[in-house]
Structure formats: structure tokens, C-alpha cells
Design goal:
419 residues; 12 helices; elongated
């Protein structure tokens, strides 16, 4: 892609209404624009990052034999009344009335819809276990939306639901999904922790949250210095730094985290209230056991920035970056040699399937450098007349300060090897 053909909507100054780093940088980098409180338009640059995260989530879910579906965003009130949550959920539930005076809501979650689907489609234990998932826009009418897409009212979420005849099967899938989530966050290059958590209004007896570690995180995590034990401090309200860990191993320490995932064992909370049953091996009707597994896809983007930035802008984990390489030709509109080399490298890298951004704008070098640092492209190739005379280009990793002089003949191979 060429910047002259791209909506590169960068800003020089921090927006005055942005409180946290990710919100400031997503606005400055031209990733998002505010439509209303907690509601954002994703611009091309931001959408590419969002899609890169979505791709990883989808690949790992598919690898775990989960089946993708797409449920309606607008849900009938009758289903929520069956589960008992129509009145329980509170003002976060955006309620809608259609022209026929029928009540609906804009789905904040999909337990009722998926339970209704499965009770109509699944009849025998032989069809189980089954895990279904979707990646879809949700809406929760937050009383105080803030921090950009970190705590938005409208957001992109991956929610999955598993169905079983017994607790043993649920335990197996729950452990499988726990590993899937670890795989996702590891592939995304994020430092994270899985912690014991409260199930909240989703329900169930067992749940774990996944937190991206960041000083700006709204949640505090207590963890053992001698085991994998970690817990949201909401579950340990009186805990102090240095207290013995509840698992009997080591002492407690504290970190701040941004919740980006939550998995639950729902049991029969929804299947009983909604009469979702299946015939077991003896021909008896039994209530389905359910698991629920959510990831805040759009929140991951913000959390990654909170964890990966410097004074100049975003430092993307490579798998999330909107482009892998930026080519910065100095005065290409005045130098035929610079333009020719820039086009040559652009073509060669694209032919290898590498996403490249060629900055062909008529701007000063300082503007080109500042924008590429801001938007966080991992690899930068800087082309100038002097370098061409020496048979080299300058190569810079976004995560490092120093530039290297690399032979023109070797630069494509070097970048290809780094992918």
C-alpha cells in the first residue's frame, strides 16, 4: 500500500479528552475516531490491527475444533425472561421496542440465544461435546465509558459456548479452552496472567480471567512468587503484599492488569431455566452442562498498546502490526534513483507476501520518520542518495533506537528471514 492512496489520519498533538496512553495513541495514529461516548469508528489502520487479532483468535479456536457461527445482535426479550436475566441484568442492557411493541435488547452476551439454538438442534448425547463460537459486535450501556476502546459501550468480542452431558466432559473442554487462550495471548506477543475470578452476572461456580499486565490496568492481581497461583484481589479483599499465598506456596505480590479474556463453567444455570436437555446413554433426559469463553478482541488492541509503547508512539508485536515493513524514500519525487530503488524493494517484498507501506508523500523526512514511529511499523527501510552511492540502505527496527546500514542486495533477505 502507498501512503498517497491510504487514509493515514495521524495527529501531531495528544487529544485533550484522552486519559490513557492507548486512547491517545489510537487517536493520534488514526486508528479510531469517536462517534459518541464509548462508540468508535475503526479507520483502515485500526481495522487492520483488529483483523490481525481476530485472525489469531479464529485460527486457535478452529484448531481446537470449535465451530464458528454468527448469532443475531438483537435478541428477543422472551429468551432473557426464560433465563430470569431480563430484570436482573440492570441498566447496562440496552432495551429496544420494535414497531409492534415487542421488546428486544442489543446483546451484551449470548448465553440465552446459544442455549435456545442448541436445545432446538441437539437431541442425543452422541452429538456432544460441542463447542460453538462467534466473533461479533456487542453492546453494554456502560454508565461511564472511558479509556477509548478499553471500556467502550460497543465492542468486538469472541464468545464461545460448550455443551456436555456431564461435569467430566465440561472439565476437559474447559482445560482445552484455557490452553487455547494461553496460545492466543502468547502468539500475540503479550505478557499476561490467568487468575482465579468471580463469575459475576454471567454465573457458574468456576471462572478464570486473563489479564494483560500493564500499570494502567483497572484490576489488581495477587500472585504467588513460588507457583502459578494468581487471583483477582476482589476475591482476596484483605490480602497484603508479602502475605502467604493461599495455595501454600510462596508469598503474595501484586500487579495491575487489563482483563482481556474470561472463561466460565456455567454448569446447568441456563440449561435448567430454559429446559435445554438431551437424552443420555440410558435414554433419560438430562440438563446440558455448559461452558462459556469470552475474549475482548477490540480491548486486546488497546491493551497491547498499553504494554508496548514509548515516547514516540506504538511498538506493535509483529503479528498485530498493520504493516510489517515501511519503506521511507528520501526526496523520491526529486531523485529518480531513490524512486526506482523504493519501487523495486516494494515490489520484491510484496511478491514474498509481506505487507509493505511505501511512504510516497511529498513530506519532509522528519514527518515520515515521526509518522512511522507513531503507527509502530516493526521494520523500516530508509533510502537515500548517499546510501545508494555506497550500495546500502538504512534499516531500523521500531523496537530499537539505532539504525543499521544493510547492503541493498541483502535487505529483502534480511527482512524475509525476520518474518
Amino acid at each position: 500500500m502507498r501512503t498517497s492512496q491510504y487514509l493515514l489520519a495521524t495527529l501531531k498533538e495528544d487529544p485533550t479528552d484522552a486519559e490513557v496512553v492507548s486512547h491517545k495513541l489510537m487517536l493520534r495514529a488514526g486508528m479510531i475516531r469517536r462517534n459518541a461516548a464509548g462508540i468508535y469508528t475503526w479507520l483502515p489502520l485500526g481495522l487492520k490491527v483488529l483483523q490481525n487479532v481476530t485472525n489469531v483468535v479464529r485460527e486457535e479456536m478452529n484448531r481446537a475444533d470449535a465451530l464458528e457461527i454468527l448469532m443475531p445482535a438483537i435478541q428477543a426479550a422472551e429468551l432473557w425472561e426464560e433465563s430470569g436475566r431480563w430484570q436482573q441484568y440492570g441498566p447496562e442492557l440496552l432495551r429496544i421496542t420494535d414497531r409492534h411493541k415487542r421488546e428486544f435488547c442489543f446483546g451484551p452476551t449470548h448465553e440465552e440465544v446459544i442455549t435456545d439454538l442448541v436445545r432446538r438442534e441437539i437431541r442425543s448425547y452422541k452429538q456432544l461435546p460441542l463447542t460453538l463460537y462467534q466473533i461479533q459486535t456487542k453492546f453494554r450501556d456502560e454508565i461511564r465509558p472511558r479509556f477509548g476502546v478499553m471500556r467502550a459501550r460497543e465492542f468486538l468480542m469472541k464468545d464461545a459456548y460448550s455443551f456436555h452431558t456431564d461435569q467430566e466432559s465440561l472439565n476437559t473442554t474447559y482445560e482445552k479452552m484455557r490452553q487455547v487462550y494461553c496460545n492466543i495471548f502468547e502468539r500475540l506477543g503479550l505478557e499476561f496472567r490467568m487468575v482465579i475470578a468471580d463469575s459475576g452476572n454471567i454465573g457458574g461456580q468456576v471462572s478464570h480471567e486473563f489479564h494483560v499486565l500493564a500499570e494502567t490496568g483497572e484490576d489488581q492481581i495477587a500472585y504467588s512468587d513460588d507457583s502459578d497461583y494468581a487471583i483477582n484481589v476482589e476475591m482476596l479483599p484483605d490480602a497484603k503484599e508479602g502475605d502467604p499465598s493461599p495455595d501454600g506456596k510462596g508469598k503474595l505480590h501484586f500487579l495491575r492488569g487489563i482483563e482481556v479474556g474470561h472463561i466460565f463453567q456455567l454448569g446447568d444455570k441456563y440449561s435448567k431455566s430454559m429446559n435445554a436437555t438431551v437424552l443420555d446413554g440410558s435414554g433419560n433426559s438430562t440438563a446440558l452442562q455448559m461452558g462459556c469463553y469470552g475474549i475482548g478482541v477490540s480491548r486486546i488492541v488497546a491493551a497491547a498498546i498499553e504494554q508496548n509503547h514509548d515516547q514516540y508512539g506504538i511498538i506493535w508485536p509483529e503479528i498485530m502490526a498493520p504493516f510489517k515493513v515501511a519503506i521511507l524514500p528520501m526526496n523520491m519525487h526529486k531523485s529518480y534513483r531513490v524512486k526506482e530503488l523504493a519501487e523495486k524493494l516494494y515490489t520484491e517484498l510484496q511478491a514474498k507476501g509481506i505487507e509493505v507501506l511505501l511512504d510516497d508523500r511529498k513530506e519532509r523526512a522528519g514527518v515520515l520518520f515521526a509518522d512511522m514511529e507513531l503507527i509502530g511499523i516493526p521494520h523500516q527501510i530508509i533510502i537515500g542518495e548517499r546510501g545508494i552511492d555506497n550500495g546500502t540502505v538504512e534499516y531500523k527496527l521500531r523496537s530499537e533506537k539505532e539504525k543499521q546500514n544493510i547492503s541493498i542486495e541483502e535487505i529483502v533477505a534480511k527482512i524475509t528471514a525476520a518474518m
